[in-house]
Design brief:
Blueprint lengths: L6 H12 L3 E7 L2 E6 H17 L7 E5 L4 H12 L3 E5 L5 H10 L2 E6 L4 H7 L7 E4 L5 H9 L8 E3 H13 L5 H14 L5 E6 L9 E5 H14 L7 E3 L7 H14 L2 E3 L9 H8 L3 E4 L1 H16 L3 H18 L8 H17 L1 H5 L8 E4 L6 H10 L3 E6 L6 E4 L12 E2 L4 E6 L2 E2 L6 E6 L6 E2 L3 H7 E2 L2 E10 L5 E6 L4 E3 L4 E2 L1 H11 L3 E7 L1 E3 L3 E6 L1 H10 L14 H15 L19 E4 L19 H7 L1 H7 L9 H11 L1
Helix pairs in contact: 1-2, 1-10, 2-3, 2-7, 2-8, 4-5, 7-8, 9-10, 13-14, 13-16, 20-23
Length: about 650
């Protein structure tokens, strides 16, 4: 086999090697339909020919705003074949964020699905030179929206199905413009080099303004081939792709590793996650790509479903779960004879009575999940491993295309991000020197996966890329067994009034691993006299605890709470928030970094106000700015959470 140097060649190779085997799957008219590897190659060429016919040129940038679907994948491969550069955008962007990215990337067109037609049309209101391409089938809804926003078909609006139809005709035509355009398409492909840009992927901006990361064919293929060596996925496996395709993780693992290994990727119904449980049963995936927010939601639903089965089943479940966690240990060191013997009976019992029903949530063929995007809490890793659907934590950066390391079935350790992928140099640096095992420093990478740079931002490129090395801005260390442990973002570090620094993620994970009431937390200290925290709450759990302790009545109707009642509930939250202090692994967190006070936020940190990004990570500077008044209230006097703001938040939550 000739050396594969571009993702287009990877597609050609997949078409030759796997032929009519399914590559892409989605629902049309309530029925699952698949597109083979061979057909994906042909359809993307048809789309590319239509782009050439519309006078798109090599180097043009084209943005995509849509949920994952087969037409998304075909469209991107098509625009790459036409020599264009893809700008995948998160559907969760605000109008202002969308307009910024379209302008900054110098996009010539925007591809949208029906679900995001209106958002795209509104953004193009100020950018009338852009073309809108709908990658959903034409219907009365899109036609009504086109009229509303004055888009005219054939001029500044086109439909995917029509472009594919025109392209197929051009592929097969013996005369007219077909042969000439086919020659042009072949000539463009011949000029595409490994260092040409495939995508401009904008950062989520968790600690500052977004940057457009340029990833080349070389970057993606280096990461694809080496990551595939770390995690075994044989030809014929299938997955339901729940992650948005604007992520480089979904590109490398979804689009490219699936092509390389001959795997099938299916997409959930386009109306969000409402039908996800039924989609999982219909597809029966062998593995899933996920993020901690998703698996955390799954875990809570599973626990509630067991609780609903009665006290005896719930007792057995907890006994079996504890035994499974004890048996597995850290996942790397093998259990001794006594641990195997003492945990055998409860594990066997719960594996017969309870765990099969939980595993069935993912379908009958599930082997494991791969988690990324944010740190995965140890309690999630232990829980899913115990029930028989392990979630293997990985770590990466979009700037590294993106995978740096991952745990796998063959080699994993809970609480770590796994083993470094082959052919990637990773060093832990501090003050210009490489750190020893266990010493925290900045994670620095060098290799073929490292990005070309930031689009139209040479200053940021020079700051991040030095002598071919990518300075991640993330902190971590290598443990004694060679696993990488990521401790947090350097720019997100807490800074005390004395100038000392500490990672907020370390504390946040400790709280989330032990708390009953805290759903989300952002620890805060910007040279203040003590550390505080913004928290959102699991109100159902808190109400149950307040009823159990007699603070509130369990009767239906409006709850009337006095200031004394509210202060007692605040004490429950304070005690719960500090529960991590009693765990052996958390005693090393110095007292000055433990939250001394907190602000209760009545809603959730979510995408609607831009407080989390598409990877479900907190955008810290936005949370800080959005809740500046509540933060200042925390620091008005001594560290006392019995504030007017917390009382008001609880009144809102309890009513």
């Amino acid at each position: 086999m000739a050396k594969i140097e571009t993702v287009i060649e990877l597609l050609h190779n997949g078409a030759k090697k796997y032929g009519n085997a399914p590559y892409l799957g989605g629902k049309t008219g309530g029925m699952w339909q698949t597109i083979s590897f061979k057909e994906a190659d042909r359809l993307s060429s048809a789309f590319a020919l239509s782009l050439l016919r519309m006078n798109f040129k090599k180097g043009d940038t084209v943005s995509i705003l849509a949920e994952g679907r087969p037409s998304w994948v075909i469209s991107e491969f098509g625009l790459l074949k036409a020599g264009c550069i893809s700008v995948p955008l998160s559907p969760k962007l605000s109008r202002e964020e969308l307009v910024f990215r379209l302008e900054h990337s110098e996009s010539r067109a925007l591809l949208v699905s029906e679900n995001y037609f209106q958002k795209g049309a509104e953004a193009l209101g100020a950018l009338r030179s852009l073309i809108l391409v709908c990658i959903s089938p034409r219907n009365t809804h899109t036609e009504d929206l086109a009229r509303k926003f004055s888009f005219h078909e054939g001029k500044n609006l086109f439909y995917y199905d029509e472009l594919i139809g025109q392209g197929k005709h051009l592929l097969d035509a013996a005369g007219g413009e077909g042969p000439e355009l086919r020659i042009s398409l072949d000539e463009i492909e011949d000029t595409i080099s490994p260092d040409d840009t495939v995508t401009i992927s904008y950062t989520g901006g968790t600690t500052g303004n977004p940057r457009g990361i340029m990833l080349s064919h070389r970057n993606y293929l280096h990461n694809t081939f080496n990551s595939a060596e770390l995690v075994y996925m044989p030809h014929g496996w299938k997955s339901l792709i729940m992650l948005p395709l604007d992520h480089s993780f979904a590109h490398t693992v979804g689009l490219y590793i699936f092509l390389y290994r001959g795997l099938a990727m299916y997409f959930p119904d386009s109306d969000g996650f409402r039908n996800l449980p039924s989609n999982l049963q219909e597809v029966n995936p062998d593995f899933l790509l996920t993020i901690p927010a998703l698996t955390g939601s799954f875990m809570k639903k599973m626990i509630r479903s067991v609780q609903a089965r009665g006290k005896l089943i719930y007792f057995l479940f907890n006994a079996g779960l504890r035994a499974g966690i004890k048996y597995a240990g850290n996942g790397f060191d093998k259990p001794g004879l006594w641990r195997r013997f003492s945990t055998f009976l409860p594990r066997a019992l719960v594996n017969a009575l309870v765990f099969p029903g939980l595993r069935a949530f993912f379908g009958r063929d599930i082997k494991f999940c791969i988690g990324g995007g944010a740190p995965l809490e140890i309690r999630q890793q232990e829980f899913f491993n115990a029930i028989g659907v392990p979630v293997y934590q990985g770590y990466g950066l979009t700037e590294n295309a993106p995978i740096i390391c991952a745990n796998s079935a063959e080699r994993h350790k809970f609480g770590t991000s796994g083993s470094i992928i082959p052919d990637l140099e990773v060093r832990i640096m501090k003050d210009g020197k490489e750190c020893s095992a266990g010493e925290i420093g900045e994670i620095v990478t060098r290799g073929g996966s490292v990005m070309k740079g930031y689009f139209r931002n040479p200053e940021a490129t020079a700051e991040t890329l030095r002598d071919g090395c990518l300075r991640s801005g993330d902190l971590g260390y290598r443990d004694k067994d060679g696993f990488l442990v990521v401790t947090g973002r350097e720019k997100a570090l807490l800074i005390s009034s004395g100038g000392e620094k500490y990672s907020p993620e370390t504390i946040e994970e400790a709280v989330l691993n032990t708390s009953r009431f805290v759903n989300q937390i952002m620890v805060y200290n910007e040279q203040r006299k003590f550390t505080g925290a913004l928290v959102t709450l699991n109100i159902a759990e808190l109400k149950a605890a307040a009823e159990k302790t007699g603070i509130v009545s369990g009767r239906a109707g409006r709850t009337v709470l006095s200031d004394d009642d509210l202060d007692r509930i605040i004490d429950l939250v304070r005690e719960d928030l500090g529960a991590f202090r009693h765990l052996p692994g958390c005693k090393a967190i110095p007292p000055r970094w433990r939250p001394s006070s907190f602000a209760i936020i009545p809603g959730a940190f979510d995408e609607s106000n831009g407080l989390i990004n598409s990877a479900m990570k907190l955008v810290r500077h936005r949370v800080r700015d959005f809740y500046r008044t509540r933060i200042e209230e925390m620091y008005q006097g001594v560290a006392d959470p019995h504030s007017m703001g917390n009382r008001a938040a609880l009144r809102e939550l309890f009513n």
